[in-house]
Design brief:
The structure is a homodimer of 202-residue chains. The first copy, chain A, is mainly alpha-helical. Chain A is 82% helix and 0% strand. In chain A, helix 1 (6-27) crosses helix 7, helix 7 (101-111) packs across helix 8 and helix 10 (150-166) packs antiparallel against helix 12 (179-201). The first copy, chain A, is globular. The mean pLDDT of chain A is 91. The structure holds a DNA duplex (30 and 30 nucleotides).
Chain lengths: 202, 202
DNA sequence: TTAAATTTTAACCATTTGGTTAAAAATAAT
DNA sequence: ATTATTTTTAACCAAATGGTTAAAATTTAA
């Protein structure tokens, strides 16, 4: 008879997610998580055993959130530019919905690169990158795009999509943008980034 | 008679810098800073009063480190593409030398955006961006480049230069690169990024 | 309805943390 | 050489932290 209350568990998880994203692993407090979830701290331990275990669950989920759709789109049987357009669009939409996600994932990754590296390696990107490279090589041969590696193109796409979310305070400060102006700039990037990528390939 | 030992102060500062970059504000420990500097923890307080004060000094210096040269280059009387080439080259060289810098600065910025925003606003970028926009407009009028705003071009440049450093563990994991391959990829980006930027402008 | 199992709680614990105090040690001034 | 000042140290402190324990409360099974 196993009766863990799924609702309690979920409330704690969602609260933990919010606080870990705001404060990171080192800055988050189990007491705060418990308080904001509306339960007693011992209960958090009853359900999740330890802070590290709770964090692992949250992190796994957020990393998956960051990369979800990427593999699917890159595997899809689409023309190259349509594929790029979809990646850009979905990346920016995803991150507009979860703006704190990349800095959270990448910061925790930089804290503990080896442990997390093992998890990242499980994401089946290598096979997908091989297919992507073949597609790119085919387009190069056709003369439709300049010579570029799948790796560099992938990095360019992710750089142009993700960085403005990571660097939100810096960009707002340096370019003197208020929230509204910043969000307008992000929205504009859906087409700007895709256009940039098209131009640099042609 | 003021006799703070400059060497002691510097040793503590450099040690603090290293540990704050590794662990962040929340994760760094004053005892660790003292131990690694080779002094007693009370001494760290004697010189720097508190953890927050010490962190502020370190952060101010690192933020300046990240943005130094940027304003100078953007103000320089150089042709547009030469200017872009210099920004890219110096950015990548700087970050190759201090690879943990951007994730440190941007992560702490995301923790405390309002406080840090005031500091960022003091960097005289707005005037420089105006000049940059004028230069871009002039090139657009001449027909040498496509229509783009200084803001978006600036964001593209910084995205393409900085993101691969922030996302080091992710890139290594996803693309199955060892350290050597990663560094080779970074070195290659000096020309790749510049070329990409040129293509997207033309 | 009672007993068993599970969830939730309040209280507690050992350790860690940033910071303080006062004295010892070192340096500078007279 | 002595005194004054500054630096450095060891010891200490209160609060915070992640985690544990045992009992109360609730739910489920018989």
């Amino acid at each position: 008879m196993k009766r863990k209350d799924k609702n309690t568990e979920q409330v704690i998880l969602q609260t933990a997610r919010k606080i870990f994203i705001q404060k990171g692993l080192a800055g988050a407090r189990m007491q705060d998580i418990a308080d904001q979830a509306g339960f007693n701290k011992a209960l958090v331990h009853y359900y999740f055993t330890s802070k590290d275990k709770l964090f692992d669950l949250v992190f796994e989920h957020e990393m998956s959130n960051l990369f979800s759709n990427l593999v699917a789109i890159m595997s899809a049987d689409l023309p190259l530019f349509e594929k790029i357009e979809n990646i850009v669009s979905l990346d920016i939409d995803r991150l507009t919905q979860f703006p704190g996600l990349p800095i959270f994932v990448l910061n925790e990754m930089s804290r503990n690169p080896d442990v997390i590296l093992k998890r990242v390696k499980k994401i089946p990107v290598q096979k997908v990158m091989n297919g992507f490279q073949k597609q790119i090589n085919s387009e190069i041969k056709k003369g439709t795009i300049k010579k570029i590696t799948a790796d560099q193109l992938f990095i360019n796409i992710q750089s142009l999509c993700i960085f403005p979310f990571i660097a939100r305070p810096m960009i707002k400060g340096l370019l003197q943008l208020d929230d509204k102006a910043y969000l307008a700039m992000i929205e504009k990037r859906k087409t700007e980034v895709f256009q940039s990528l098209v131009y640099q390939c042609h």
